[in-house]
Amino acid sequence: MTPSMWLLLIGCVLLKVNCVTQRAISGDTFDAFSKNFWYEFSSPFTETYDELTEAEPKTTPDPQPFFEEHINSTNVTTQFGSTVHLHCRVNHLHDRTVSWVRRKDDALQLITFGLHTYSSDTRYTLEYQRPNDWRLQIQFANERDQGHYECQVSSHPPLVFYVLLNVVVPRVELVDERGQTTSDKFYKTRSTIELKCVISRVPQPSSYVTWKHGQRMLNYDTSRGGISVKTNILPEGAISRLYIANANEADTGNYTCSLAEIASTTIAVHVLNGENPAAMQHGGCSTSDAAPITSNPFLFVCGCPPLGVDLTTA
């Protein structure tokens, strides 16, 4: 600004102050000053009094919770007897609550609410894992645990993550030389007993296959001698073979093949002295040919009479 403009501005200010002073002397002190007193001399002046009032603070709503998984459902497969975890990872939970429920037909069964477990089945527990995993733990899973589970978040609208649990029950079978399941095998004395156990439907292959004769464990038995166990692990199971050399009548009895404590099957082994085991196991006669002779315990094996019995003279 030029000096002349400064002089003009100062003169206006002095004139304004003089006017205000005169009004104050008259007793109206508060109203003497204009509300926009200092803004009248601003250059340029573009604001009004209403625009200068302090704006009310704006509140930003909390972000909505969401599941970490890209899709809101998953399938979980576990082995019978194992411990399984159903995961539910929630971001931006804030003050919302996570619940686990099980759906059976049209009914919902509450399992957990927050960190508390409400199921009467003690195998079910809530295992929270930082930072955001509200996982449901099920111990000793069995076929009854199969089905639909829901992880629910108490937002508006509610969020639901669906889990379908499948429990696979292993299959343990004792088979003969033709690969067919059998419940009895016959051997001559001084022959070698060979039992084949086929284990299938095992999502997590395990070499923990045990053999028992009655209640006696055979895997590490050194008292008898001539016993060996060979187990081959397969992608979804195993094949285990038990060998017992130089069989005698004391080896007769029930033999059990077990997959840990999960599943097992039993076969009856007969060690015969002087009989023909092949005739017992693979005889070609039908059940209609069996003769009612009660003096021999092996009469009805495979529907054939015992070797050496002449039915025509009976």
UniProtKB/TrEMBL annotation:
Say yes or no: keyword Lipid metabolism present. Answer: no
Q: Which UniProt keywords apply?
A: Signal
Q: Which domain of life is it from?
A: Eukaryota
> Which InterPro entries does the UniProt entry name for this protein?
Ig-like_dom (IPR007110), Ig-like_dom_sf (IPR036179), Ig-like_fold (IPR013783), Ig_sub (IPR003599), Ig_sub2 (IPR003598), Ig_V-set (IPR013106), Zig-8 (IPR037448)
Q: What Pfam families is this protein classified in?
A: Ig_3, V-set
Cellular component GO terms held in the UniProt record:
neuron projection membrane
Indicate the segments forming the Ig-like domain, all copies. 57-155, 170-268
Q: Where is the signal peptide?
A: 1-19
Name its GO BP terms in alphabetical order: synapse organization
- Is Ubl conjugation a UniProt keyword of this protein? no
Q: What is this protein called?
A: Ig-like domain-containing protein
- In its UniProt entry, the species of origin is given as Diploptera punctata (Pacific beetle cockroach)
